[in-house]
Amino acid sequence: MxxxxxxxxLGDVPSVRREGDTFVLxxxxxxxVYVGTPGNLLNVDKVGRVDxxxxxxxxxxxxxxxxxxxxxxxxxxxxxLPEPGRVGRGTGFSR
Length: 95
Description:
With 95 residues, the chain is mainly β. It is built from one helix and eight strands, in the order αββββββββ.
C-alpha cells in the first residue's frame, strides 16, 4: 500500500482523529495491520496510532509498542469500529 492509500482509508473513518500525517484511533476501536514479505505474514494487533512518515510508517499499539515498516510491505488494514451510539460491549446476558 502507499502513503496516500493508507491516508485515504483512515481519513474516511469519522471516528479516527487526524493530526497532520498521524491518525489516532478511538480507544474502543480494534485495528489490525497486515504486513507481508516474501514467505512471511505478520499481524500487528491493537493498533491505536498510525504515523505516515515520508519513507515508512510507524504503528503504535495499545501497549505503546512501536513498529516501523516500509509502505510496500503493508498488504491490508482491518478496522473494527464501535457502532455509533453504542456504549461499550455487553456481558452477553440479555433481559
